[in-house]
């Protein structure tokens, strides 16, 4: 029991001594002021840490930019656009120009072609290729015009001089912005054949994305 009491007294003494030393150290630090808080070595270390922090921020920004560029590249690789549609019935001659509505969808990758309106709407900016083919005959002529945003781009047609069947077509490469529209007009007083044989078609696909 005496040994235990002695140990307790010794521990208390040591604790008081450590506390006193800590107070003395604190007083010495206050007296030294900024010189103690920022010795040459410490100041240099703080400066280097500040530089490293700035560099880390720059690297993080560059990493974010790289991630964004990679995501854009992946998005371009994923974007696939291609369609083909056929006219399901004979059309024309009518009194005015009409958009041909190719209702029989053969392919519509990307769902950019609307078979209720006959209009293709570019889902992404890029270079596209389009074709239009038709069959017609008898005494009526045929004139088909491919439009981009209310502007005629290419035309194909047949000026029939006999009652036999005739075929025609055309193709064009277009640079489109997202939302641009492409469609085919059938000119007034002309006609084309449609139906199960799918002679009259409208097709297009994305060549390269911007």
From TrEMBL:
Pfam families referenced in this protein's UniProt entry, alphabetically: C1q
Domain C1q, chain residue ranges per copy: 76-210
Cell compartment(s), UniProt: Secreted
GO cellular component labels: extracellular region
Gene3D superfamilies: 2.60.120.40
InterPro entries assigned to the protein according to its UniProt record, in alphabetical order: C1q_dom (IPR001073), Cerebellin_Synaptic_Org (IPR050822), Tumour_necrosis_fac-like_dom (IPR008983)
Residues forming coiled coils: 49-76
UniProt cross-references to SMART domains, sorted A to Z: C1Q (SM00110)
Annotated signal peptide: 1-19
Keywords for the protein's UniProt record, in alphabetical order: Coiled coil, Secreted, Signal
Record-linked PANTHER family: CEREBELLIN 13-RELATED, CEREBELLIN-RELATED
Protein's recorded name: Complement C1q-like protein 3
Naturally occurring in which organism (per UniProt): Myripristis murdjan
